[in-house]
Write a structure and sequence with these properties.
Layout (H helix, E strand, L loop, with lengths): L9 H15 L4 H12 L2 H12 L3 H12 L1
Helix pairs in contact: 1-2, 1-4, 2-3
Length: 70
């Protein structure tokens, strides 16, 4: 399934930002990108956050998703 700005849950982006802040730190570039996307809801910011998140190691992404399941 292709993801675009229309199918992304903005609340989930905010939760991912919180998870990444815990995992990687408040000043991590991915954390900052996710937080900005959640705040601005701009398509360009969402795209940057998505690309930054996908660039993470699979284990880091899995840990962030694990936070969302709790």
């Amino acid at each position: 399934m292709a993801m675009d700005a229309a199918t992304i849950d903005l609340a989930a982006i905010g939760r991912l930002a919180k998870a990444m802040a815990f995992i990687a730190g408040e000043t991590d570039p991915t954390t900052l990108a996710l937080r900005k996307a959640a705040e601005t809801q701009a398509d360009a910011d969402i795209k940057k956050a998505r690309l930054a998140f996908l660039a993470l190691k699979p284990g880091t992404r899995a840990a962030a998703f694990a936070f969302l399941q709790d």
